[in-house]
Amino acid sequence: MLIGIVGRTNTGKSTFFKASTLAEVEIANRPFVTIKPSHGIGFVKVRCPETDFNVKCSPKNGYCLDGNRFVPIDLLDVAGLIRGAHKGAGLGLQFLDDLRQADALVEVIDVSGSTNDKGEPAQPGSYDPMEDIRVLEEEIDMWFFGIIKKDWEKSAKQIQQEKLEVIKTLGKRLSGLKVTEEMVKDTIQEQSLYKNITTWTEEDLKKLAITLRKKSKPMIIAANKIDLPGGKENFERIKKEFKDYELIPCSAEAELALREAAKKGLIRYVSGEKSFQIVKDSELNEPQKKALEFIKRNVLEVYGSTGIQNVLDKAVFELLKHIPVYPVANSKLGDKDGNKFPDCFLIPEGTTALEFAYRVHTEIGKNFVKAIDLRTKQVIGKDSKLKKSDVIEIMVSK
């Protein structure tokens, strides 16, 4: 699973990325700091079954903290997009192409309005961040449109002459954008595009492109710099205007500060929580104490968290509709080496037990007999759909 982090330059994208991954990336208050895309591992947060089964887990990937399982996902931070990117402005096509394999997008905006349309620092409130949302949405939609429109007449005639299936052909053509045949089928039905494909108008193609973009690259908005003057007011205004988007108040700088302090052992902090505990007060200098107090008073107590973990969790569990499932090798809740709950898989809602068995390993899928729900001890048939946080033992033929 790949989540792309997008937005205009200098809105805090790289800070959001570093706060999510603690990867070493350059952060500076100037335009176009990020040129090449940065890959890193972020984490979504789920309840670990160790608390239900009264055992201590041993994750192979990710980690567990205070009963919270942090499951790894791939994050990609691309360079800031500007108006005209889909036409190549600012190396825009290169940056957009970096997003081809993204399953969902997180748009980071400077909700305080302290970054102008050139990506330069400005007086808080002097720029309307709603414009960033409009521009980015248009650029990504028109990028999709450009890909679909390219050689369209030739392709449409070929489909018609060779009597090819429109849905399969389009699905294959757009598979590099994570567009599926099912998405194409649903879009054609929604827009009643049943007429001869060679008669589809440019407007038809544009609507097709925009809908397929929304289906294959759903987007959530991280309203960053919420703690700066004007942030809260702009947030409420944008939320009313863009009702179709999930808008999360964020402070990437606050999250980064807390995570780095926790990494050094100065505080105890679980990402996504509304508080932290100071562990080594004597090792904190006065500026650090003031910074932590500011975060506590102006971010955590006001918004309940820094928002960063919330964005990632909502992207995976609500936008992409995935659920966590824990496979174990035996009723002792472990693998052959005795590790408890070693794996946590993120799978689409509606995944069956047999489909999941193949996901774990091809041979397990081929030899699948049944699965056991270790919470209820009930048998799960091959066509039964798995549920959120299921702990299952898969039985195979010898």
Description of the structure:
- The protein is 37% helix and 19% strand.
- With 398 residues, it is of the alpha/beta class.
- The chain folds into three domains: 2-133 and 218-315, Rossmann fold (3-Layer(aba) Sandwich); 143-211, Orthogonal Bundle (Helicase, Ruva Protein, domain 3), CATH 1.10.8; 322-396, Ubiquitin-like (UB roll), CATH 3.10.20.
- Strand 6, helix 9 and strand 7 (246-249) form a beta-alpha-beta unit.
- Helix 1 (13-21) runs parallel beside helix 10, helix 4 crosses helix 8 (202-216) and helix 6 packs across helix 7.
- The longest helix is centred in the middle third of the chain and has 20 residues, at 130-149.
- The protein starts with a strand and ends with a strand.
Describe the secondary structure blueprint for this structure.
Elements: E1 2-6, H1 13-21, E2 38-47, H2 50-53, E3 63-65, E4 68-77, H3 92-97, E5 104-110, H4 130-149, H5 152-161, H6 166-173, H7 181-190, H8 202-216, E6 219-224, H9 231-241, E7 246-249, H10 252-263, E8 267-268, E9 277-278, H11 286-303, H12 308-319, E10 322-328, E11 345-348, H13 353-360, H14 362-366, E12 368-373, E13 378-380, E14 390-396
Parallel strand pairs: 1-4, 1-5, 5-6, 6-7, 10-14
Antiparallel strand pairs: 2-4, 3-4, 8-9, 10-11, 12-13, 12-14
Helix pairs in contact: 1-10, 4-8, 6-7, 7-8
Q: Largest sheet, if any?
A: 7 strands, mixed
Q: Mind telling me the C-alpha Rg?
A: 23 Å
Low-confidence stretches: 24-28, 30-34
Query: Terminal Cα separation, in Å?
Result: 33 Å
What is the CATH fold-level name of the largest domain?
A: Rossmann fold
CATH architecture of the largest domain: 3-Layer(aba) Sandwich
CATH class value of the largest domain: Alpha Beta
Full CATH superfamily name of the largest domain: P-loop containing nucleotide triphosphate hydrolases
Order of secondary-structure elements = EHEHEEHEHHHHHEHEHEEHHEEHHEEE
Oligomer: single chain
- Tell me the structural class: alpha/beta
- Helix coverage percent of residues? 25-40%
Q: How many DSSP helices? A: 14
Total domain units: 3
Shape type: flat
Task: Summarize model confidence as the mean pLDDT.
Answer: 89
Task: Please tally the β strands and state the result.
Answer: 14
**Percent of residues in beta strands:** 15-25%
